[in-house]
Amino acid sequence: MQIEHPQQVDYAALTAQIRAWAHELGFQAVGISDTDLSAAENGLLEWLTLGMHGEMDYMANHGTKRSRPAELVPGTLRVISLRMDYAPPAARDSRQVLAEGDRAFISRYALGRDYHKVLRNRLAKLADKIRGAVAEFDGRVFTDSAPVMEVELASKAGLGWRGKHTLLLSRERGSWFFLGEIYVNLPLPPDVPQQEHCGTCTRCIDVCPTRAIVAPYRVDARRCISYLTIELKGSIPVELRPLIGNRIYGCDDCQLVCPWNGFAQTTLEPDFAVRHGLDDVSLVELFAWDEAEFKFRLAGSAIYRIGFEQWLRNIAIALGNAPKSAEIVAALQARVEHPSELVREHVVWALAQQFRTND
User: Fold this and answer.
1) Is Mitochondrion one of the keywords UniProt gives this record (predicted)?
2) Which of 18, 97, 188, 291 is packed most tightly, with the most Cβ within 10 A?
């Protein structure tokens, strides 16, 4: 039934209905927060001032809209935050792949369908259901797609707390999940934030291959492997290349060592199942793909967004870090005259690594 007068809306009942709809749509948890992010705004501005966002200019381009939801979407009173598990149930163990230097490690969130597409579709369906119940509803959906402080909002909404690696942590689900948001103009009753439960643990800080977690709750993106392999479009700093190992798209190390991920659940979402054997594939095999095969196999994947040139750049670094072999040298030499200067530079570096004698 559609409700025509806002003063007649039972917002507690509507909230319960929203939670039920969300679970029907495949979300594992729902929380509601107000829009006051003033406690986090100074930290964001300081991080930007220090340049820790690297070349992610979009992080600074929107001013305070990121920390003030009502400036981004006028009329916003509440934010509905939602959580969806993504750990694929049949993926090869990450530690085993990382230990085999001639295999390609891809962050586990990217092994299936692009989460932007999956979550945006489900969030839009949820928004439609709310609109069908309340005529006055107005809102906008987000999933890592606009200036939104999703971890801060999810934390305020009681879905978990910010870990020292800056990701959201849940006592029940660890951190292997995606977040999405709906900004709404309805005064829904907000949830109560959770307490933090990281204690004195520093495993995520200690394990980071490039020391990108420069302090608890602060990541210098310029050193983060996820940034280097995904966001950075140009040349990867030479001093960081050996530290990347065989990680060709993203990095999960800080999540792999987190004790709370002992409680994580594998996903129930078929779209996040492993595609094309990307959980356990050789670097040489991926490096042999031409651009047409890259586009065909990775269509609908988050990896598709980085493009073929960046894909080859990343794999070249991993091949340079891999155990020395004639097969790897041959694969690199086949790309040494690639049309892209970016690819050629990293191939030449990788060949030098392969021919380097042990000190």
Assistant:
1) no
2) 18
* Residue type at position 156: K
Integer Cα distance of 9 and 20 in angstroms: 17
Q: Which residues are annotated as a binding site for [4Fe-4S] cluster?
A: 198, 201, 204, 208, 224, 251, 254, 258
- CA dihedral over 138, 143, 145, 147, signed as positive or negative: positive
Q: Residue 66: name the closest of 181, 227, 208, 192 by CA.
A: 181
Of how many residues is the chain composed?
A: 359
Residues 6+ apart with CB under 8 A from 70: 35, 76, 77
Residue in 37, 27, 129, 32 with CA at minimum distance from that of residue 83: 27
Name the active-site residue from 34, 138, 144, 280.
Answer: 144
Per-residue pLDDT tens over the stretch 68-112: 999 999 999 999 999 999 999 999 999 999 999 999 999 999 999
Task: Identify any residues that bridge with 56 across adjacent strands, giving them in sequence order.
Answer: none
Residue corresponding to tokens 């020292």: 164
Known catalytic membership, residue 144:
yes
User: What tens digit of pLDDT does each residue of 91-101 get?
Assistant: 999 999 999 99
Enter the pTM of the model: 0.94
Domain segments of the chain as ranges: 6-89+107-184, 282-359
